[in-house]
Design brief:
Elements: H1 2-41, H2 45-88, H3 91-97
């Protein structure tokens, strides 16, 4: 008869441990998470300097990419206008001029 009561007692002990232990584990995890995020927020001066240089490099690249895009738009417009001029000339006139 003692063997029949061991399983329910083990189940109750497991339930109690889970009910009491889960909130404690959550509290400890939050403390650990907050400590990690707080240490990540404080960056060293070297890291700040490197981030500033990266930001300047990205800004310079953005300006260059915009210049390239502007040049591409200009060339595309020239080619489009040139194509319209060719369409506007009748075929009979272009043969006589050559």
């Amino acid at each position: 008869m003692n063997e029949d009561i061991i399983i329910p007692i083990a189940g109750m002990i497991t339930g109690i441990v889970m009910v009491l232990g889960l909130p404690l584990v959550i509290v400890q995890a939050r403390k650990l998470w907050m400590r990690d995020s707080a240490s990540a927020a404080t960056a060293s001066p070297e890291t700040d300097h490197r981030l500033e240089r990266i930001e300047q490099a990205i800004d310079a690249m953005a300006v260059e990419v915009e210049r390239i895009a502007e040049g591409q738009r200009f060339v595309t417009k020239l080619l489009a206008d040139r194509g319209q001029e060719r369409v506007a000339i009748p075929a009979s006139q272009s043969r006589h001029e050559v």
